[in-house]
Input
Amino acid sequence: MLSMGVAAMLLGGCASGGGHSELPPASFVATQDRPSEEYVIGPLDQLNIFVWRNPELSSKVQVRPDGRITTPLINDMPAVGKTPAMLADDMKVALSEYIKDPIVSVIVENFSGTFSQQVRIIGATEKPASLPYRANMTVLDAMIAVGGLSQYAAGNRAKLIRFDRAKNRQVEYKLKLSTLLKKGDPSANVRLEPGDVIIIPESMF
Output
């Protein structure tokens, strides 16, 4: 289980200063249902591998925790860190030893993502967890996935830690989780990005 010690380290890495910024309410953005070609394959992703005109070489496989996959005629090929197109190209090279001009496509069916493509929720929640990021994911989606706030959570003192590439540092934003979950205020629901960390403190007595 993720500990509050992790939260302390993350907060220590954030910029110090005055009040924390607030994010705008989430809005829906039309997107593809499946990961784009730029998606980077991660451990435990489920892959659908299709070899044209060679159904016996096509298969559905899960990326192993060690980051490799095994398919007919191909053993222990590294998959983690590659896009589906990159993996397809590597498989073409490997299969060309056995068949002429193979045509390979790789589709990510169920994805977990790499560490940088996950959203982590730690602190005073029912089930602290790392969740695979998906398009249009919001704070509400994440909180539903972890079972909501714990009994003594200080939801309106929660923080979201996000790495700002433009500033090359972590930035801290205020979240109003109690307002969102207990009052149903949609303005408190904000969009998440890959790599976000939500930290929920406990109430002080």
